[in-house]
Each structure stands twice: as C-alpha cells, then as structure tokens.
Amino acid sequence: QFCSEGPYQSRSRLSEKPSILQQHQDRNSVNMVRSSGLLTGVKDPVALKSIAVTLSINDFVAGVSATLNYENEEKDPLEAFFVFPMDEDSAVYSFEALVDGKKIVAELQDKYQAHKRYEEALSGGFQAYLLEEDKCSRDVFCCNVGNLQPGSKVALTIKYVQELPLEDDGALRYVLPAILNPRYHLSEQSVDSSLDLKTPIFPLEDLPYTLSMVATISSQLGIRTIQSNCPLSSIDYIGENKTSAQVSLAEGHKFDRDVELLIFYRKVHSPSVAVEMGMPEREADSLMGAPSAMVSFYPDIPEVETATKCGEFVFLMDRSGSMKSPMSSQNRSQLRIDAAKETLILLLKSLPMGCYFNIYGFGSTHEAFFPKSVRYTQETMEKAVEKVKLMLADLGGTEILTPLRKVFRKPPIPGHPLQVFVFTDGEVAETFNVIREVKFHSKRHRCFSFGIGEGASTSLIKNIARVSGGTAEFITGNDRMQSKVGGPLCIKSG
Q: According to the UniProt record, where is the region Disordered (predicted)?
C-alpha cells in the first residue's frame, strides 16, 4: 500500500460520509463495466487533458513513468480515485500527485496502517492519497486521490517496472494499455472491488486528450529492428552495433488503441548482464544501497516434436456480448469472435488423429458441441469446424467458472491427459477463484490461454496458464496469429 497526505485548504470536510473505497466495499455487485483514469464517487470521469509516457527498456525489462494530467471542471468539490491498468508482471515503485502546484509523494506502508492514515487524513480535512492493488484483479491498481476543488489541476505520475515477454518469433513485446475492456460481475456475488465503473465513449476524432511517448531501448545484444502498430517518429540508433535506440510516437497521436512496441534483438539468445549501482545516500549493505545485477539467459533449445495420438483437448470459447466488438479501434473490420474462431480452427486442424476433443461456448450460460469428448477423426474434425464457423457472440456475460468445473469433474480418459484451451477477451469478477480452480486440477491437465483483442486481462490469461504449466498468448490482430498459435501446438503433446 502507498499512502501520503498533505494540508488541504478548504472548508469542506468529508468526515460526514464514508470514503469512496468504503462505499465500493459495502455495496452488492451489479452488472456494470469498467473504465480507467481519474473518476468521481459516482463513477464519472474527471476531465483528462494529456498523457506523457517515458519508457526505458534495458534488455528484457522496461521501466515506465506515466504522467496523467486532469482538471476538475465541475462547480463543486469532489472526491476522486485513480484506476490504472497494468500488466500482470509489473511492480509499482513510485506514485506522485501534483495538485495546483503542490507535490505529494507516496510512501510504502503496511496495508492496515495505510488505510487508517488515509481515513484519518480525510476526516481531518487533509489531502490524502491511497494506492492499492485491486482485490479482484492484480493487473489493475487503484488510488484514492481524495479531495479536489473546482478548477483544480492534477498531475498524477506512476512509475513501475515490468518484465517483458518474448514472442515465439523472437520479438520482445511491450504494450501500453488503453482503457481496458469491460469486465463482467456475477449479479448475485458480493464483489469487493472498486472497478464497477462506466466507460466514457468518445468518437475517435473528438478524444479530449492526447498521448505522447518517448522510448529508449538499450541492449548489448544489438537492436535489429523496432516495429509498432502506431505511427512512429524516425528511429535514432546509437553506436555501430545499434546497442541503443530512441523512438517516439508520431506527433498528434490519440490514445485510442493499445500502443504496442516490438523489439527484435540481433543476438537474442546470448547471455547478458545489467548492473545498477546502489544509492549513495543509503547504507552500503542495505537493499537500496548495495549494487545489484540482473543476468538474462534465453537459450536457443530446439523444439522436439513427438508424434502422439494421446490427449484430450477441450476448448472453451468466450461467446459473451463483448466478443462482438472490433479487435481494436484501429482494426474495426475484424470482430473478436471471428479472430477467436479463426484461432480455434487453426488448432482444430492441427490435432493428432486418434486423440479426443470437445468444444464449449460460454457466457451467462454454456453449451458443448458434444455430450462428452469424442475421438478426433477427419469426420469429427470437419463437423466441429462447421459448427465453429456458426458460433456467435450471443451468450450474454463472461462466466467461465461453471463450464471449467464441468470439464474438470468429468472422468478422465485413460491414456489421454487433459489439455484445456481458453479463448476470452475479458475478466470475470471471480478471477482468483478461476485461477484457484485451474491450479487445483493442474496435476491432471494443462491450460493454454488466448487473450483476444486489446485490453484482455493479463491477470486472468497469464495466471491460468502459469499455474497449470501451459502458455499464454495475446491475439490483437491476424498478422501474427500463426506464430502465436504455433507455441501451444508444439508443446501440447509434451
């Protein structure tokens, strides 16, 4: 938990009502969608003016500093909180707020102590901030920003580090998330989350904010090329071996899609070492005072494909309403459900003859192609492919736990270990329960997950694969689909 406080020059006090955090903890769950950014107690967005991002990538680790500028355009004071989407493999280490020229720096505290100090500060008429990880999703951080006067200008700076994944084609991938996709909550479940928010929608040409991003990439491995799904300025390489480069988004870019950078190193399989000196003002033998080193080793181990007819392959396809959305704001011609179906068909046509398989569609309800898994033949494969082509995003919400339990509780087929493939674009409120269920049955199955479209939950997608020994992939367009599907296809029979 991060908490800080400072003087608040206003006559209004908030001790007569519970904090926003408490309001969200006390209410019952309802069906809503989620936004990100600075929001009021009634879940309306505070006016965002601009976003500036500084990105530093050293070998396989990214350091990110993001500053978001807001202004309270309302006539009354308001209490606001900040929702910041992140990758599951990120760690926040700094949070600062600049309110009307006054700078406040957060410090790391025990969770109970941080909550207590935050409530005491608000009751005493102080400006207070509380940054915490959302309890229902580890890829989102929430921060109670406290009291904002009419006309107040707020600059929020959050800094975090993140280990970057390597794609199957050798690309190092960094994604700066846009507003995350809606997440569905079971109506009967009591949810302890501050993320039931309304998503602001603007025509792309009328977005009231801008994004600027400058990225510096450094590695002794040498940089072969840098690609992006967004227009970039000219790339400036430094050194004869291109061991460093600087690039920025082209001027006038709007924050209307995920910003993706793909970095290809020349010698990606060579070991490398990064050294950071300790902070001189800290004790020499302390954590922050001592030097630290990071060794990166990504060996080139040839894949060994085993010819086998063993395995039960069960595919879970998200058929919720949100799967009718485009893959991205940039790629509106392809719907998420169509991209997921294309990926599923690629997998179906690559299964070994003689194995067993079944396909489930899930939403508010679920349905299966077959009463139980059937033997894979040319006939059953063709029948399944035709059914997949007819699948629609028409099953309502995103409730995956029930069909997962149904799959796990079916008796195993002797000699055919279970492999589960999940295709989804969102996250359910019971994310941790889903992960727990997958982990509980991991001794007899592996789970391979595919996040479909921009904003897919990294917490859900990565963890259900991680706890079961599978792999996770994110499909944001069809240009790289073959390489993303290739990974699970190579190891599914291992």
A: 1-21
The architecture (CATH level 2) of 2-165+181-203 comes to Sandwich (2.60)
3-state secondary structure string across 116-129: HHHHHHHHCCCEEE
Query: How far out from the chain centre does Cα 260 lie?
Result: 13
Cα–Cα nearest to 359, from 411, 419, 307? 419
| Apex 214 CA angle, 211 and 218, nearest 5 | 150
Q: List every span in the chain annotated with CATH 3.40.50.410.
A: 312-491
pLDDT value for 82: 81
Q: Which residues pair with 153 in a beta bridge?
A: 71
Selected residue with higher pLDDT from 420 and 234: 420
**Nearest residue to 445 via CA among 420, 422, 425, 462:** 420
> 3-class DSSP state for residue 201?
coil
User: What's the one-letter identity of residue 439?
Assistant: K
Name the pairing type of β-strands 90-99 and 102-105.
antiparallel
As a whole number of Å, the end-to-end CA separation of the chain is: 41
- pLDDT digit string, tens, across residues 389-409: 999 999 888 889 999 999 999
Q: Where are the beta strands (DSSP E) in 59-189?
A: 61-71, 78-85, 90-99, 102-105, 107-108, 127-133, 140-148, 153-163, 171-176
Q: Tell me the pLDDT tens digit for each residue of 263-302.
A: 999 988 888 888 888 888 888 888 778 888 888 888 887 7
Tokens of 356: 């067993």
Q: What is the pLDDT of residues 197-220, one digit of tens each?
A: 334 444 455 566 778 889 999 998
**The domain 312-491: what is its CATH number?**
3.40.50.410
The bridge status of strand 210-218 relative to strand 244-248 is: antiparallel
